[in-house]
Design goal:
Blueprint lengths: L7 H18 L3 H11 L5 E6 L9 H4 L6 E3 L9 E6 L5 E7 L6 E8 L3 E7 L5 E10 L2 E9 L2 E10 L2 E11 L6 E10 L2 E8 L5 E5 L1
Antiparallel strand pairs: 1-2, 1-3, 3-4, 4-5, 5-6, 6-7, 7-8, 8-9, 9-10, 10-11, 11-12, 12-13
């Protein structure tokens, strides 16, 4: 672990993501309306929850230090951290609305699907694009996660053992930096049950994220 430079192929993939981010950002508020117009006709059902309940990336809720939320039958009186999932006919997530302190503060995550990838575009409540990411799939498993945001970018490589996620190598930097820093996310199991997630940094520091 440490600092290093990326290979040409990854640099090109990041440049493509950077181009998508800039093109989408330059469209202003109208872009968000276009995203909604594309998604809404394909929505088959919606699910309301308090807190996040779906992991698009393996264990992303747990990696963030949270427990999965709970599904609700209707919108709660306390709106903060309410999630509304919009699913297509196949059950794939097309849009997630995430409520802040009030019903006027709604962040939006849009998902689109290709043969071997999933793309996500995250808009803040004011309609400004916050980041875009591309999940690269191999045999149905996420192998690489590329992310480009306003202030920085990252590449995450997913490593599996027997079909279970064993390690994620995260490389990230702010745009002003010349090189990427790296750390590992390690997953521990008891049988098939996840029991621990630990971030391990180059200086030896270990940060337990779950439970």
């Amino acid at each position: 672990m440490g600092y290093f430079k990326l290979g040409a192929e990854i640099v090109q993939e990041l440049k493509e993501l950077e181009g998508k981010f800039k093109a989408t950002s330059s469209g202003g508020q109208g872009v968000l309306s276009l995203y909604l117009d594309e998604v809404i006709p394909n929505v088959h059902r919606t699910i309301i929850s308090k807190g996040a309940i779906y992991n698009v990336r393996p264990f992303e809720i747990e990696r963030a230090g949270f427990k999965k939320g709970r599904q609700l039958k209707k919108m709660p009186a306390s709106i903060k951290n309410t999630h509304i999932y919009y699913l297509d006919e196949s059950g794939r997530i097309l849009l997630v609305e995430i409520y802040g302190q009030s019903e006027n503060i709604i962040n939006k995550e849009f998902y689109s699907y290709g043969e071997n990838y999933v793309e996500r575009s995250y808009f803040a409540s004011a309609g400004k694009l916050r980041n875009v990411s591309r999940l690269m799939l191999e045999n149905g498993l996420i192998k690489k996660d590329l992310n480009w945001g306003e202030y920085g970018c990252s590449i995450s490589d997913y490593q599996y053992s027997g079909g279970k996620l064993e390690r994620v190598i995260v490389r990230q930097k702010e745009h002003a930096d010349n090189s990427f820093g790296e750390f590992e996310v390690n997953f521990e199991y008891s049988g098939e049950e996840l029991i621990k997630i630990v971030n391990v940094f180059p200086n030896g520091y270990r940060e337990q994220r779950f439970p």
